[in-house]
UniProtKB/TrEMBL annotation:
<keyword id="KW-1071">Ligand-gated ion channel</keyword>
<feature type="domain" description="Ionotropic glutamate receptor C-terminal">
    <location>
        <begin position="36"/>
        <end position="260"/>
    </location>
</feature>
<keyword id="KW-0732">Signal</keyword>
<protein>
    <submittedName>
        <fullName>Glutamate ionotropic receptor kainate type subunit 4</fullName>
    </submittedName>
</protein>
<feature type="site" description="Crucial to convey clamshell closure to channel opening">
    <location>
        <position position="127"/>
    </location>
</feature>
<keyword id="KW-0813">Transport</keyword>
<dbReference type="GO" id="GO:0015276">
    <property type="term" value="F:ligand-gated monoatomic ion channel activity"/>
</dbReference>
<dbReference type="InterPro" id="IPR001320">
    <property type="entry name" value="Iontro_rcpt_C"/>
</dbReference>
<feature type="transmembrane region" description="Helical">
    <location>
        <begin position="98"/>
        <end position="120"/>
    </location>
</feature>
<keyword id="KW-0325">Glycoprotein</keyword>
<feature type="disulfide bond">
    <location>
        <begin position="209"/>
        <end position="263"/>
    </location>
</feature>
<dbReference type="Pfam" id="PF00060">
    <property type="entry name" value="Lig_chan"/>
</dbReference>
<feature type="compositionally biased region" description="Basic and acidic residues">
    <location>
        <begin position="413"/>
        <end position="422"/>
    </location>
</feature>
<keyword id="KW-1003">Cell membrane</keyword>
<feature type="transmembrane region" description="Helical">
    <location>
        <begin position="21"/>
        <end position="40"/>
    </location>
</feature>
<keyword id="KW-0675">Receptor</keyword>
<feature type="region of interest" description="Disordered">
    <location>
        <begin position="405"/>
        <end position="430"/>
    </location>
</feature>
């Protein structure tokens, strides 16, 4: 008899889940990353212009779900840390939501099962047989002094049992105990193995779940009822005992009085990791959510093309281009594609050339574009200010009117002072 011990390992944190669950979790992560990348490329609502007001760059579309970001986004959700990437489209939000629900169940199950492992898990005892017990000295072992087990080891001719007897006989302090209760208490309170009869071993193990049996039986002996020589009741007792054995009555009485019913079966002593039969349903929910997200992305794509302007490219051409971009893992930036021979809604303007319909003020700044009449009016305002002797012209930040700078004589000082003069026209530049 020996106490149940623990044998922690470096990778005990993996025990709450079975190896199959860990493998399916890895596959689920890769599937979510790939589908998120596919859906984000397919839906038009994830393509946006980072500079909608900049001339020459308003037609440049960007997608934040690159291959690296698609792999990183599920990691942030799984670690419950979030990410700076926020889904825009309904389909990508569906993928994110079902993945977050998946991680919520997985993390909760892992935490609960890990707590169970840390509190009630029973690891393998390092000693599996009497030979293992005899070959070590870390755990002391002994038996009842003067009992049948002591006599068995003392008279045994088996080499292992002789070694064990020599150890018990010469060990100081003594490893022998006076009673079964004392031996069990020593087992529970110290590093000690107690050798006793199998019937008593089984009886006490059923009433204290911290005790276990090591190996099999060392010897087999039978119990009998002592009677006087030539007793007339001997045959009667023999027949009655045989009849009880044949009717399985003795086994029923043993289960009734020996089994305490407090401890589980031996095969249930070890805590088991959760398998697919326990949490397989959340994987089914994840797969269904991903399928729904793919259909939503296709509907978003077709809906946008159906309500797009006539200058957009055809459905087949756009679909082929997007699929090619997904397969080749191209970056998340590309210009808006139009049909051949159709002028774009906003023609790209080279940055090195000045836009048409703009005027330059005398301070070198550009005046906003407009109609020819408005441009002529602004040029006339600038010419009027120059005629008044203004050396510089600016746009007032408060009233958005043209102002000219010229020198005026100061009555208090001989030197000249500078001040801004507003034009009489109240037209504001764009």
């Amino acid at each position: 008899m020996l106490t149940l011990g623990r044998k922690p390992g470096y990778f005990s944190f993996l025990d709450p889940f079975s190896p199959g669950v860990w493998l399916f979790m890895l596959l689920a992560y890769l599937a979510v990353s790939c589908i998120l990348f596919l859906v984000a490329r397919l839906t038009p609502y994830e393509w946006y212009s980072p500079h909608p007001c900049a001339q020459g760059r308003c037609n440049l579309l960007v997608n934040q779900y690159s291959l690296g970001n698609s792999l990183w986004f599920p990691v942030g959700g799984f670690m419950q840390q979030g990410s700076t990437i926020a889904p825009r489209a309904l389909s990508t939000r569906c993928v994110s939501g079902v993945w977050w629900a998946f991680t919520l169940i997985i993390i909760s199950s892992y935490t609960a099962n890990l707590a169970a492992f840390l509190t009630v898990q029973r690891m393998d005892v390092p000693i599996e047989s009497v030979d293992d017990l005899a070959d070590q000295t870390a755990i002391e072992y002994g038996t009842i002094h003067g009992g049948s087990s002591m006599t068995f080891f003392q008279n045994s001719r088996y080499q292992t049992y002789q070694r064990m007897w020599n150890y018990m006989y010469s060990k100081q302090p003594s490893v022998f105990v006076k009673s079964t209760e004392e031996g069990i208490a020593r087992v529970l309170n110290s590093n000690y193995a107690f050798l006793l009869e199998s019937t008593m071993n089984e009886y006490y193990r059923q009433r204290n779940c911290n005790l276990t049996q090591i190996g099999g039986l060392l010897d087999t002996k039978g119990y009998g009822i002592g009677m006087p020589v030539g007793s007339v009741f001997r045959d009667e007792f023999d027949l009655a005992i045989l009849q009880l054995q044949e009717n399985n009555r003795l086994e029923i009485l043993k289960r009734k009085w020996w089994e305490g019913g407090k401890c589980p079966k031996e095969e249930d002593h070890r805590a088991k990791g959760l398998g697919m039969e326990n949490i397989g349903g959340i994987f089914v929910v994840l797969i269904c959510g991903l399928i729904v997200a793919i259909f939503m992305a296709m509907l978003e794509f077709l809906w946008t093309l159906r309500h797009a302007e006539a200058t957009e490219v055809s459905v087949c051409q756009e679909m082929v281009t997007e699929l090619r971009s997904i397969i080749l893992c191209q970056d998340g930036v590309h210009p808006r594609r139009r049909s051949a021979g159709v002028p774009p809604l906003r023609p790209p303007v080279p940055e090195e050339r000045r836009p048409r319909g703009t005027a330059t003020l005398s301070n070198g700044k550009l005046c906003g574009a407009g109609e020819p009449d408005q441009l002529a009016q602004r040029l006339a305002q600038e010419a009027a200010l120059v005629a008044r002797g203004c050396t510089h012209i600016r746009v007032c930040p408060e009233c958005r009117r043209f102002q000219g700078l010229r020198a005026r004589p100061s009555p208090a000082r001989s030197e000249e002072s500078l001040e801004w003069e507003k034009t009489t026209n109240s037209s504001e530049p764009e």
